Amino acid sequence: MTVNSRPARPVILGQNQYGKAENRVVKITRDGATHHIKDLNVSVALSGDMDDVHYSGSNAHVLPTDTTKNTVFAKAKEHGIESAEQFGIHLARHFVTSQEVIHQARIRIEEYAWERIESSDANSRFIGADEVKHSFVRKGQETRLTQITYDGEKWEVVSGLKDLTVMNSTNSEFWGYIKDKYTTLQEAYDRILATSVAAQWRFNWTDDEQKMPHWEKSYEQVRKHMLQAFAETYSLSLQQTLYQMGSRIINNRSEIDEVRFSLPNKHHFLVDLEPFGLKNETADGAVYYAADRPYGLIEGTVLRDGCEARIPVDMTNL
Ligand SMILES: O=c1[nH]c(=O)c2[nH]c(=O)[nH]c2[nH]1
Known about the structure:
By secondary structure, this protein is α+β, with helices and mostly antiparallel strands. It contains six helices and twelve strands. The chain has helices at about 50-55, 65-80, 85-100, 120-125, 215-230, 240-250, and strands spanning about 25-30, 35-50, 100-110, 115, 135-140, 145-150, 155-170, 195-205, 255-265, 270, 285-290, 295-305. The strands form two sheets. Strands 4, 5, 6, 7, 8, 9 and 12 form a seven-stranded antiparallel β-sheet that branches. Helix 2 (about 65-80) packs across helix 3 and helix 5 packs antiparallel against helix 6. About 30% of the residues are buried. Uric acid (URC) binds near residues 185 and 237. Uric acid (URC) binds near residues 238, 239 and 265. Pfam families: Uricase. Belongs to the uricase family. Keywords: Oxidoreductase, Purine metabolism. This is Uricase.
């Protein structure tokens, strides 16, 4: 026997910890029409009196990792997320003080920052000066892309971007779809709409050096129109939003004849907090689970009337 009266073992368990990693929790707070987002990736690692589960398989000291996940979502609703630090402190204290066998909790949090999308002049007159209050673009630059083809006579320039992540925390619905025996999706009348935009747009400039577009200005303007159309469309589907984004570009940028989008529907599911006695309803600011896969993938081309579609269907990311 060893000093602490465990049987002598030829192989000794060293440091160990466990918990649910990468809980993607999104909390929307509604302050009237103004919404606020906290978007976190929370990883829980607990350690303590855990020899038995490793040596004998007894789970008597194990708080399931599934419970640690539920705790993250329930605490986001119950306690709120003022800051990642404050939320992490609250969680760590909860795990260590509520279970005698847990002696240490390590909470790691990544926070994804979002900025509000500025509205177009026309729309700000309509909604009253301010920015759109429920539309956000994720901070951190997207990747800008271009492809130039030249056959000695004519040029073809297709530019684009990828990884431009946007979210509307309201003004999105999805209902009235086909229901067959495999359909379980509930109709949504107020859902989060989020996507990571990949887009390419084809310039109609082919050869006249005097009439070359101002590439930098064009990019900025296309990006702006795309974001504003996303923010200002009351969406009944991501497909409808796609068409609005494309047509806003075609209508405002005469140098562009064709736009193609690949839009993953970044699903945010309302977390069921009923088992913990918590109501989690969209109307009073809710906690969502941001799922990464599988995802709906909505793709399509928007063209100036009379123009030919030339961006290849599978050229999602140049
Ligand atoms: O905007 C959407 N378009 C769909 O085609 C679709 N399908 C689905 O399950 N959810 C959604 N959302």
